[in-house]
Amino acid sequence: MQFDASTGRNPIDQGKVIGRAVDRVDGPLKVTGRAPYAYERHEVAPDSAYGYPVVSAIAKGRIAGIDTTQAKGAPGVLAVVTTLDVPRMKGNFNTASLFGGPVVEHYHQAIAVVVAETFEQARAAASLVRVDYAREAGKHDLAVEAKNAPLTGGSSNEGSGAPPVTRVGKFEDAFAAAPVKLDEIYTTPDESHAMMEPHATTAAWQDGKLTIWTSNQMIAWTKGDLAKVFGLKPADVRVDSPFIGGGFGSKLFLRADAVLAAHGARAAKRAVKVALPRPVIANNTTHRPATIQRVRLAATPDGKLTAIAHESTSGNLPEGDPETATAQTRLLYQAPNRMFSLRLAKLDLPEGNAMRAPGEAPGMMALEVAMDELAEKLGMDPVEFRIINDTQVDPEKPAKAFSQRRLVECLRTGADRFGWSRRGARPAQVRDGRWLVGMGMAVGFRNNINMASAARVRLDASGVVTVETDMTDIGTGSYTILAQTAAEMMGVGLDKVVVRLGDSANPAGAGSGGQWGANSSAAGVYAACVKLREEAAKRLGLDPAAAVFADGRVGVGTRRVALADAARGGELVAEGKADFGADGKKYQQSTFAAHFCEVGVDTYTGVTRVRRMLAVCDAGRILNPKTARSQVIGGMTMGVGATLMEELAVDTRFGFFVNHDLAGYEVPVHADIPHQEVIFLPGEDAATGPMKAKGVGELGLCGVGAAVANAMYNATGVRLRDYPLTLEKHLERLPPVA
Q1: pTM value surpassing 0.90
Q2: Which residues lie below 8 Å from residue 553, measured CB to CB, with a gap of 6+?
C-alpha cells in the first residue's frame, strides 16, 4: 500500500489493543531462557563445531605470512581459514574489510578462523597461529589530524545524506554585529555500543546454499551483503535472527562473525558457530566516532537568535563518513543567518559507524550546552530561551512545515512537572550536606524516518492470526507491537496472534535502526491485514467495505460470523507492503523531547550523582506505552553513561582502543541511575502513515547528555565542555567544602 497522504480514520484508531500498555508477548521466553539466541541454536544445528577468530595485532600494514602448521596439528582442529586464502570481503554497508586479503586496515581486524570440535580446542589452537606483519605508520590522533581535515559530506544509511556545508543568509556578518554571542568548542569521545549479547553466528552450508543463524538488526541488508561477498544468488542465502540481545547500531550490517562462521563451515563441512570475544568487539566491529564541535550563537538582547553556526570534525577510515553531528541544529531553532559544516579526518582506527542516534546524540551534547551558555549571557531562563526560538517550519526551507511539532508543550509540561521554578539561576548556591545540587535541562530531537516494510499474515481454522516478517526485535518490543497491530486489525485478542520475526524467508520488513522500526513495520502488518480482512469477508459472504472485525467475529449490520469460519475451507494467506510517499516530502517529520535532570556533586571527591530525571516526549501515537517507556528510560540511561563515564581510550601510538572490554569501558549500573519519569504527549501524527506513530528509541537519548552537563554547571558553577565529564576535570575548581 502506498501511503502518500493521511489514511484518515482506520481500524487502528479504535484503540482497543493499540495504545495499551500490554506486557511483552516474548517476555516469558526470555525470562525462562527459552528465547533462541544466535550462539545457542542447538535445535537447528545440533552438531556444530566451534570457530575462534584470530585478529590483527597491528593497526595498519600488511600480512607477509601466516603459519598455521601448529594450529592445524592441535587436538580437535577441523580446519583453519586465513585472510590470505580468500579475496577481500566487504559488504555494501561496511567501511572496513571484514576478512580477506593481506592488507590490515585497523587493529583487531579478522585475519583467521580456527575450527575445532570444542570451543576450548578452537581457542587454544588459535593461539598457535603465527603471523608475520609488515607494520606501517598510521594516523590515530583526531586532535592532530583535525587541523587539516577537509570538508566532507555525510552519507547516511538512515536517510538522506548531509552536504559538507550549508548556508542561509550571511552568518559571518550577523555574528560579527551581534550584541550577545557565544563561540565555544565541545568534544565528545569515541564510544562503544557495549550491548549485552556479543556478535555471534552459527553457519551451515547445504547444496551450495548458505544459512546463518545470527544476531543482526537488518536482515535484508545482511542477506544481500552475504550474497555479494560469497558470490551467491540472494535466493541461496538465508538469514535468521529471531532474538537479539541488544545492538544499538553495531549489528545493522554484516560483520566478521558471520563471514568467519560461513568460511569455517565451508572448510569443515559442517555447521560452525563463532562468537566474537568481548575484548575483540570494540576494535573489530564499529564505534561512535569522537567529535570536535565548534558552536557559535548570536542573539538580540531580548533573546531572539540571529545567527547559528555548528561545525563538526570527526575521524574515520578512508572509505568512511563523518559523524553528522550538525543534523539537528539545522532543524531545531530559527535564526535568519545559518552555517553548518562537516569535516572528516582520515584515521587508521577501527570503523566509525552508526550508534544509537548517530549525529544527533553527540551533536546535541554540544548544541544544548551552548544554548544554556548563551541563555546565561542573556540573563534568560533556559526553558524560555528555547521557547522563543521555536519554529514550526524547517528553518532552511520555510515552505516545509513540520507535520507535528509540540516542543513548546514538552518544555512547559516538563518544567511544571519537574519543579523548574525552584531552580536557582545563579550556580553553586544549593547544598545538601556535602553535596552541591543543581538542575539542568535540554531539548531532545530526532528525525522520524519511514522505511518500506512488508509482512505476511495467515488465518487458520482455529482463528489464530500469524504474522510473518523479517523485522527484528533487538529488545525494543517489536514482537508485542506487531501482535497488537494484527489483533487490532483482525478484531482478535493477543492470545490469538502469533508473531514470527527475523527470518529472511519472510517478507522484508523495515528492520531495527534509526527509530524507524515500530511505525514502519507495524504499517507493513497493517497493509497485510487490510488484504486479509478483504479475503476473510469475501469468504464469509460479507461486504469487505462494510465489515466490522471485533471480538473474534466479523459482522455487517446484524449478521455476525466467527472469523475462524473464513478459514474452514483452508488457511487464508495475505501479503502486504507499506510504502511511504508524498507526506514524507511535503512535511518535515521529527520527534521532540524536553529532558530535565537534577544532580548532586560531592564537594570532597567531585563525584557526580544523578538524582532524578524526567523526559517529556512528542512522538505521535504511542503504540505501547510500556515498551515505549522502556525505550526512553534506556536512552536516558545511555545518556548518563555518555556524559559521566563512557570513553574508548585511544592509544595514539599504536592505533587501538585500550579499554576494549566491559571491565575497562564503564557503563551505568543500577546504582548510577535514579528514578526516571517519562511523559508522552497524547495525540497522533497522521502524516506518518496508518499507525500515526513515530519512533522513540533514539529520542530518549538525544539531549540527555546536555541536560546532565547543564545540571552539573548549575550545581557547581564549573562549566565543562569535554565529555565525559569525569571528576578530575572539575575537582580542583569546585567551590570550597564549607
Answers
A1: yes
A2: 491, 560, 561, 562, 563
